[in-house]
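[recover] target loaded
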């Protein structure tokens, strides 16, 4: 269990900041990755950057490693050299969280045969117009549940003939993970605000500089 990550959930000022700022920043990320009213896949990368920026803000740039080799597909950032996976979902419940992104059915089956939890998870559940949360799921909790329910109970393969783009944690497993007494949560009211956003303004500003 990362004592550093627990600090986030014990810092009252930071908790208040997360509750008020995170919905606004994630709304900005959606606006930045939207085209003709549709949100693009790149929104995931923008959300991830927002969470990494939160870690840098709290713990300092020197303690947050962002240059992660592509050979570590689940690790998004290291905090004090501890690997962390950042996952975000927009959902009422806990379905649809990807362990790996792939459209290859053979690769998905191979992944399930070899997968074992190996890093802490920060999960953000976005639930616009209602309550969602910012969760910390320690590695220890994941390992314990994985041993208990096994691969079949923990990992959901894509249905043959569909194109869901990835292998997921089962809804039941994820619900158990977030409800574990060792996991932490900050409940977040996901309310949108009026934002005047022009996706070209900053680039026009750069062109306009002397």
């Amino acid at each position: 269990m990362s004592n550093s990550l627990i600090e986030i959930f014990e810092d009252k000022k930071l908790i208040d900041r997360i509750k008020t700022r995170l919905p606004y920043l994630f709304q900005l990320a959606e606006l930045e990755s939207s085209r003709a009213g549709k949100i693009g896949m790149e929104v995931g990368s923008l959300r991830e950057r927002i969470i990494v920026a939160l870690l840098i803000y709290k713990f300092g740039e020197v303690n947050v490693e962002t240059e992660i080799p592509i050979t570590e597909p689940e690790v998004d950032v290291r905090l004090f050299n501890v690997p962390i996976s950042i996952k975000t979902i927009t959902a009422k419940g806990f379905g649809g969280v990807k362990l790996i992104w792939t459209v290859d059915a053979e690769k998905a089956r191979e992944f399930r045969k070899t997968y074992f939890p190996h890093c802490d998870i920060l999960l953000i559940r976005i639930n616009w117009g209602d309550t969602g949360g910012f969760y910390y799921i320690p590695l220890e909790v994941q390992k314990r549940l994985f041993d208990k329910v096994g691969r079949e109970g923990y990992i959901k393969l894509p249905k043959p003939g569909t194109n869901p783009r990835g292998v997921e944690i089962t809804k039941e497993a994820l619900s158990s993970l977030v409800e574990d007494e060792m996991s932490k949560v900050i409940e977040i009211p996901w309310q949108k605000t009026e934002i005047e956003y022009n996706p070209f303004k900053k680039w026009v500003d750069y062109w306009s500089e002397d």
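[recover] notes: The chain has a mean pLDDT of 92.
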